[in-house]
Amino acid sequence: MVSAFLYSLAAGVLGVVATGKPGDIAWKFLRLVGILALVIACGAYVWPIVAEEAEARPSGIWSLSLSIALVCSAVALVLVAPLAERLPSAFRMIGLVGAVSGLASACLVPSVLSGSGPPLRMVVVVVSQMLGALLLGGITVAWLLGHAYLTATKMTIAPLRHFSRVLLLAVGLRVVFVMVSLLLAWSLGGEDVVGRLGDAWLIVSLRVGLGLVGVGVFAYMVSDCVRLRATQSATGILYFGSLFAYIGELAHQYMIVHYGWAI
Asked: What is the rounded CA–CA span in Å between residue 108 and residue 57?
């Protein structure tokens, strides 16, 4: 569960930062994102070993290769960061490779692959992991960038505006997905899947109440702060929003592993 969450977070951070315009962003911030992604990726691989969670340990040549690709992408981002403005295509390609590798790693975690449910369960899980990575990456990159304004005083508001829009988009897509997922659960799994979700009312409350409603409110507040060019206010809001997002996405991973469905 934790391993899949960390893989999604690393993938989201690399993927979202690659959507930005390197010329508008301080290269030291890009390097920081690469270092953070590297630490998270290593933590995702090591966590099952440290926590002695045999069912969550990645196995097979594909899982190992994807984990290595994710780590290499993070390292490459750190090295390319000073040249990102001159090599934007290479910078974006590195982020894309890292995002795909991280997402695939999150989906291939054994504890995520296992579980009961209808045949479309894996499709729902994969789409959910993608949207979760987008949300995690959007809010993490946004609050890191907000903090970077304290030292990179020459940066314009454009990058923060872009990443705040990514966050709003991620929240909107996540809300739509939850509604579609619940409809699929009812039509395909019937009372079996829905009943299990009903029994997990506390987890569902954290997932929806904090991970969607709370994050959605914070995302709207951030967009308003960005409109007013209040970067410090936006950063403070993003700190709290990221906590809500992390709790919500951890609850999402818990539901996949223990209840066989993703919302």
From this structure: 10
